[in-house]
Write a structure and sequence with these properties.
Chain lengths: 514, 351
């Protein structure tokens, strides 16, 4: 009796916890729907449908699709690093991750300022450069898990050449490549800052202009809903792909060798990586380096230090919030009594990832504050809390993706065991699963830190009380045409991101193999 | 003929293969038997050319394939077919394409088709040719892997515990087919395993490996009856011992050459016959094992004589005991150097 009562209490607590997570995730979407319901009408929808929406939708789809394809093509050389051994492989693998340190919107501003890239093609190029490391990380990690006998077999059959090997092994990494593609698609789809810089009229730019420029809430909400509806497909694809990852064979040794590339073939990964290195690293590195050397004496170190501290604090807060939220959902899905609710939470989280962070922030928090007449929630606006929460909601999908993938791949039997022995408490079970979840959680945290530190639009929009971060400072410099002065801030942002980047490299790309 | 001479390899964490030598002739299946971590898989990778030895030589006939720190003949040119613990099939390819993967890429398409068909036919799985890999059973998958290896027309088959994931009947069928294929096609074949059953069913000759070093080589009968030390004796089967004086006092019939203080024997090398009255030893306990029963007989207070016999006797019955064959006295010797690996007894035995 006592045991049954304890079990019911535990289930109730578990359901409450997951319910709170769902509420947090669903609130922004509910607010968005409410705002659209208040202001929007059939006439407005028809008007938007006849005028700007088709064009913006076309641009958004084309840019997101081409940027994803471009990211995959730019990453081909990097993917080769996961399969082959060749001179300088470890260096190339890490060099190709470095573009993750530079915000895509700053790259867009830099290229536009220098007259190198502009318009739709420029936007596609910048977004492709930014998404290429995602393919490298996902595919690299997946290929590293291909059991060694597959490589042995191909080498014995004389099929160890670059094309034969890639043709045989890349399909084994297909789920990971699909997940990377969906992630890149969602990032490009939700981008606002790059598109505005390159003056491309995408759906997000339309949303930004309607909502924040002209303060036409109804039209903005309709844009946001259209964006969300169209985002659901890739978001759910990503979710489904993660759920369908094939488990590794426990009897086969994991991949622990790369096949050697000899002669001219050894140059192939370097040649394939050259566009990515040039666009994402060498050219921006040279320009930023020159600008820093020109402006270094004029830098206010106190201001820079303060901005960096606030940026790091914000990023850590967002990562912590997202990790807690994702931890609760993962625990409920794997071990506790509400897997269906947790799955619903997972889908909502992936949908939120498709929304621009600025929309999330405004929809979830500012709208609530206004609706309460500034009495109940107005204190929120005086703190960085709304910003942190909005960012946490935006990136919770990253933690979920990493955790789901790790649990599906490695720890299914462990979850069953923990359930069978009744060790389903959150802290106990998650600590027991730490060997499986630790690495992916660390990689997710590092990725979230990097992305949150670079985030611009939400940071700029929700800085009510001079909560300056590196992003807001660079935005201010950009507004006044002082892009060169911003170079020092960007360089420091990159240096601050080095540790998270090295962590990602260590966890996802892995140490040197035998 | 495969010739492995004084082969050595250093593999980190202090593990190595040490001066390993043996030969494998065409048509004569050979098994490398050893506990987990004894270097069996490493040995196969060295022979396949997938790893480089630190010492010694691997040759096919007179042609040296690898020598110290050098792989002279690349894996694809060695004529080696490798079967793994699992089938290692590519899920995106159908059965035919998986089998074709074993063929040289430069082979003309028509010839490749003929060889694939022949390989599928030899494994009696032609009807599976267009099936998707995930729809196959474990046994079917291993047959496809075997067909892929045969399509390569190897002169040497390297088998890395390929029967591990198969159930009993499928395992027995595939082992028998492999054995007959090796004989028919005069293939040299090397099976590595830690299961005595598998080694016994497949190979004519066995090399016993421990901690990267050869312990003993010979037929299973020789290894089982004349193990070089206590570790080998216990790895290959169960060993029992009895105090000679006590056994004689209780009228246990012993082999004529039994000397020393204790006699070591295999539990199935004991013959039992019903005894009457106060003759013989009382049966203390009986455990049915299928065809055999495991019996414990009371020799004296607190001392049991254990054996296995076909005839089951009820507890309390009295039996006359004859130990037919003794193990060499050296099995009482220390077990030799520790290899940091399992040295548990292999439950199988010669029937």
């Amino acid at each position: 009796m006592r045991s049954s009562s304890t079990s019911r209490t535990s289930a109730a607590l578990d359901a409450t916890r997951v319910g709170l997570c769902l509420l947090l995730l669903a609130a922004p979407l509910g607010a968005l729907l409410a705002r659209a319901g208040e202001h929007a009408s059939g006439e407005l929808l028809l008007h938007l449908g006849r005028t700007v929406l088709p064009m913006q939708l076309g641009y958004s789809l084309a840019v997101a699709g081409l940027a994803t394809l471009g990211g995959l093509l730019l990453a081909l050389g990097g993917i080769g690093c996961a399969l082959f051994a060749f001179p300088g492989r470890a260096v190339l693998e890490r060099l190709l991750l470095l573009p993750l340190l530079v915000p895509a919107w700053y790259l867009a501003e830099l290229y536009r300022d220098r007259g190198v890239l502009d318009g739709s093609s420029g936007l596609v190029a910048v977004l492709a450069v930014s998404s290429a490391p995602l393919f490298l990380l996902f595919a690299g990690a997946a290929l590293r898990r291909v059991p060694r006998p597959y490589l042995d077999l191909l080498e014995l059959a004389g099929r160890g050449g670059p094309f034969s090997l890639a043709r045989a092994l890349l399909p084994l990494a297909a789920p990971a490549l699909a997940a990377a593609a969906a992630l890149a698609l969602l990032l490009a789809w939700a981008d606002t800052a790059c598109a505005r810089t390159m003056a491309v009229p995408t759906l997000t730019v339309g949303l930004f202009d309607q909502w924040f420029g002209r303060e036409e809430d109804g039209s903005g909400a309709m844009h946001a809903l259209a964006l969300l509806a169209l985002s659901l497909l890739p978001a759910l694809l990503l979710y489904a792909r993660l759920a369908r990852q094939a488990p590794d064979s426990p009897r086969l040794p994991p991949g622990s060798r790369r096949l050697p590339l000899r002669g001219a073939a050894a140059l192939l990964p370097w040649l394939l990586s050259a566009p990515q290195l040039a666009l994402g690293l060498v050219y921006p590195g040279l320009v930023i380096g020159r600008w820093v050397s020109e402006r270094i004496e004029r830098v206010d170190l106190g201001l820079l230090g303060g901005d960096l501290l606030r940026t790091l604090g914000l990023a850590l807060g967002a990562a912590l919030g997202a990790a807690l939220l994702a931890g609760a959902l993962l625990h409920a899905r794997a071990l506790a009594t509400s897997p269906r609710l947790a799955a619903l939470g997972g889908k909502l989280a992936f949908a939120l990832f498709a929304l621009p962070p600025s929309v999330l922030g405004i929809a979830a928090l500012s709208l609530l504050a206004e609706r309460e007449g500034g009495r109940l929630f107005s204190w929120l606006n005086a703190t960085p809390l709304p910003l942190t929460l909005a960012l946490a909601l935006h990136v919770v999908a990253v933690f979920l993706a990493a955790g789901e993938s790790a649990l599906k791949r490695q720890a299914v039997a462990h979850c069953v065991l923990l359930r069978s022995v009744g060790r389903t408490g959150a802290l106990a079970s998650l600590s027991l699963l730490r060997p499986y979840l630790g690495g992916p959680a660390l990689a997710a945290a590092a990725f979230v830190l990097l992305e949150t530190m670079k985030e611009q639009t939400l940071t700029v929009l929700l800085q009510p009380f001079d909560f300056g971060t590196v992003s807001t400072r660079v935005f201010q410099y950009g507004q006044t045409g002082q892009l060169r002065d911003a170079a020092v801030w960007i360089l420091c942002l990159g240096l601050a991101g080095l540790y998270p980047l090295l962590t990602i490299a260590r966890v996802s790309v892995g140490p040197e193999r035998a | 003929m495969l010739r492995v001479h004084e082969l050595g390899a250093r593999l980190g964490r202090g593990f190595s293969l040490e001066a390993l030598s043996f030969e494998a002739a065409p048509g004569e299946p050979l098994a490398i038997l050893g506990p987990n971590g004894s270097g069996k898989t490493t040995l196969l990778r060295l022979i396949a050319g997938l790893a480089t030895p630190s010492a010694g030589r691997i040759a096919w006939g007179e042609r040296v394939l690898s020598e110290a720190r050098r792989v002279l003949v690349p894996p694809a040119e060695r004529g080696v077919g490798l079967l793994f613990q699992e089938a290692v099939l590519f899920p995106q390819l159908d059965v035919r394409a998986n089998v074709a993967l074993g063929l040289p890429p430069e082979l003309p398409r028509d010839e490749a088709r003929v060889r694939v068909d022949a390989a599928l036919a030899s494994m009696r799985i032609r009807e599976l040719a267009s099936r998707a890999v995930p729809s196959l059973s474990g046994g079917e998958q291993q047959r496809v892997a075997l067909a892929r290896t045969l399509a390569q027309r190897p002169r040497l088959m390297l088998l890395d515990e390929p029967f591990h994931s198969l159930d009993g009947p499928v395992r027995r069928a595939i082992i028998a087919e492999l054995r007959s294929l090796c004989r028919e096609r005069a293939l040299a074949a090397l099976l590595v395993t830690h299961e005595l059953d598998e080694a016994a069913a497949f190979a004519d000759r066995i090399v016993l490996l421990r901690a990267g070093a050869k312990v003993q080589e010979g037929t299973l009968e020789r290894l089982y009856r004349e193990p070089v030390d206590g570790w080998a004796a216990r790895f290959l089967g169960e060993v029992e011992s009895v105090e000679l004086a006590l056994a004689r006092a209780r009228a246990v019939e012993l082999p004529a050459d039994a000397t020393g203080e204790r006699l070591h024997y295999r539990p199935e090398d004991v013959e039992l016959a019903p005894a009457s009255g106060e003759e013989g030893l009382p049966v203390a306990s009986v455990r049915e094992l299928g065809a055999l029963a495991e019996l414990a007989l009371t020799l004296a207070e607190g001392q049991l004589l254990r054996c296995r016999a076909r005839s089951a006797f009820a507890p309390g019955a009295r039996v006359r005991v004859r130990i037919v064959r003794a193990l060499p006295a050296r099995v009482a010797e220390p077990e030799g150097p520790s290899c940091g690996c399992s040295s548990g007894t292999n439950r199988a035995s010669i029937k």
